[in-house]
Amino acid sequence: MASETRPFLKMNGLGNDFVVWDAREKPLLLGKDVIAALGDRENGIGFDQMITVERSSLGVDAFMRIHNQNGGEVSACGNATRCIGRLLMEEAGKDLVTIETAAGLLHAFDAAGPRSVTVDMGVPRLQWDEIPLAEEFADTRAIELQIGPIDDPILHTPAVVNMGNPHAIFWVKDVEAYDLERIGPLLETHPIFPECANISLAHVFDEDQIRVKVWERGVGLTLACGTAACAVGVAAARDGKTGRKTTIHLPGGPIGIEWRESDGHVLMTGLTEVEYEGEIDLDTLTWRKTGAGDTPLQAGAAS
Ligand SMILES: N[C@@H](CCC[C@H](N)C(=O)O)C(=O)O
To answer: Which pairing describes strands 104-110 and 116-120: parallel, antiparallel, or unpaired?
Structure first.
């Protein structure tokens, strides 16, 4: 029997990278172990998330399925929504598309600047049981972690926000002063988070400018996380640390966040990039590059 070869695209949003499959015509079902093997950076293609574009049962532009590098399926990915939004807009020649996700319908539209896309990520959920947390907290701006894995009082009082997925934000003096690779896994799996959580360290360094490092649930350290950027922007404004429009500076670059006053929606704007085209033999999991990606942007062209 002939082996099955499938084309894919490798993309990223500020370094948060994805393998993207088009499964609208031909479904693609991969097991957790296969996804984790493909996501492995040493022996596989290597990615933070695997994104499967499927037909929407609601009749919008597409459904986007998201798997973390460890093979677990999750509901939200901000950077991938911008990347898939760009692909669908280019394909249809439109400047606004609607993407169905497990977390709801999201609208993506062309932002000013080449390859820059804005996504309306909807309304953040802020109640303790919406995060979700394992016990009740009236105020989610700073919850008390009773069992702290780390001997540092600052790391016991995160703000928590759900942006379609759970986020905990630890306000620190300097994000560089912490070994996030060591503390990230302990905080991600803290018993207060029944579904685990994405962990951000954040500090405001100038007016409405926030430096952030993220340990992603099911992935690890990442160059950028769109939903974390949204969650940090919301947590900062809620706390009066910033206004409602912020720039979140991640290791991979800046993301613009607006927590819109009129309707409480969070708008996220940032760059997208096609790295290369590839194809994979699904029987042997051997893969190769088949085409080039975006040409580098001129210095100063990004916005
Ligand atoms: N990289 C993403 C978030 C991906 C999902 C996350 N790791 C989770 O488990 O919730 C983003 O850009 O938002």
So the answer is: antiparallel
Q: What is the mean pLDDT of residues 158-182?
A: 97
Distances (CA, A) of 124 to 53, 227, 241, 248: 24, 10, 18, 17
pLDDT in tens, 212-237: 999 999 999 999 999 999 999 999 99
Beta-bridge partner residues of 116: 271
ipTM: 0.98
Length of the chain: 303
Strand, helix or coil for residue 269: strand
pLDDT band per the 50, 70, 90 thresholds, residue 2: low
Q: Which helix (H) or strand (E) holds 226?
A: helix 226-238
Task: Tell me, in angstroms, the distance from the centre of ligand 1 to residue 222's CA.
Answer: 10
Q: Cα of 77 to ligand 1 centre, how many Å?
A: 5
What residues are annotated to the active site?
77, 225
43: Cβ–Cβ under 8 A, 6 or more apart, which residues? Answer: 37
273-281 and 286-292 beta bridge pairing: antiparallel
Give φ, ψ of 122 to 5 degrees.
80, -160
pLDDT at 300: 55
116 lines ligand 1 (CB under 6 A): no
Q: What pTM, to 2 d.p., does this model score?
A: 0.96
Nearest CA to ligand 1 atom 4: 77
225 Cα–ligand 1 center, Å: 6
Determine which residue's CA is closest to atom 5 belonging to ligand 1.
77
The CB density around residue 89, as the number of other CB atoms within 10 Å, is 18
What is the dihedral sign for C-alpha 186, 187, 191, 194?
negative
pLDDT at residue 153 tops 90 = no
Phi, psi for 47 (deg, rounded to 5): -165, 165
